[in-house]
Give the backbone structure.
Amino acid sequence: MTKAGTTLAMASDHGGFAMKEFLKQKLEAAGYKVVDFGTGSDKSVDYPDFIHPLARDINSGKYDRGIIICGSGNGAQMTANKYPHVRAALCWNPELAALARQHNDANILSLPGRFVPFEEAWEMTRVFLKTTFEGGRHLLRVQKISQLLK
Ligand code: RB5
């Protein structure tokens, strides 16, 4: 459970800008603090320029949870998952957001800003923040994600 009062990190490109602004307003109204890594408009930008700084700060432990958004959610997720302690999950519905937490201990939610209704994105965000990791049989599997073969 990530409680109100927690600081969350958010970042998007232009394809996710409108959804980021919508979710940021919802989160702040719900009592969360948001650190916004940009972008700051719908002007075309390159998503890695905004996702890398957020992912670095999740990787270091500066922030526990992040929400990233690009048009499809794919480029943002791919960029964030370059960092060993980042587990960014691309989600399309609340059930997948719940599973990303329960089974994968995801610490970043990646959303497709151009493909899901904003209210559905808000529901995914709420589920992502309230759902806890189940541990158990999933713990070793999650630990193995960053154990790369030589
Ligand atoms: C930008 O047009 C788009 O390519 C980007 O938002 C994202 O979908 C990339 O994965």
In short: The domain at 7-145 is CATH 3.40.1400.10 (Ribose 5-phosphate Isomerase B; Chain: A,).
